[in-house]
Amino acid sequence: MMGIMSKLIGDSIMVLAKPMKKNERIDQFITKIRNAAGLEVVSSIKASRIVIKALSQNRIVGILIDQRAKRSEGVWADFFGKKAPTTPGLAVLAMKTGAPVVPVFMVRDGFGKHRLIAQNPLELVRTGDIKKDVEANTQLFNHTLESMIRQYPDQWFWVHRRWRGKKRSINDEKPSSEKK
Asked: What is the DSSP letter of 110?
């Protein structure tokens, strides 16, 4: 539904989307729907330069932040009381470009009615320690999303293993429930 906003503002909105490698037909189908709504869909893989160029042109870029990051690439940030591998991409881009991060949510408001909620831009953490700032800002984004989900829990649909834990090393002891 938020894709339709591009039609209302009269300018395409760029959105990052992770390609669905396991089912290219579904990926093409969803991309076609997004394009018809007026969205410019860009693969999230190596999209930094494209996004930075769009932001330099004052374009709107939509990034979904509830996607599970690869363990090796993600920041382990708290999400509903558990650590979850979270993409640091939004924090890195916002800190690098100075572009505001504006949380935007679409909620159902009765039958056939929807309400767009655009919050104030988030105040990013900038201490000068890039690694810690990326972690703190990624945590801020997770808390912002979590807050909205708590307000509208029936409207968050997630089918992936968001909290799949870190791989244990051989030396890690198994929890007592796993011991034989």
From this structure: S
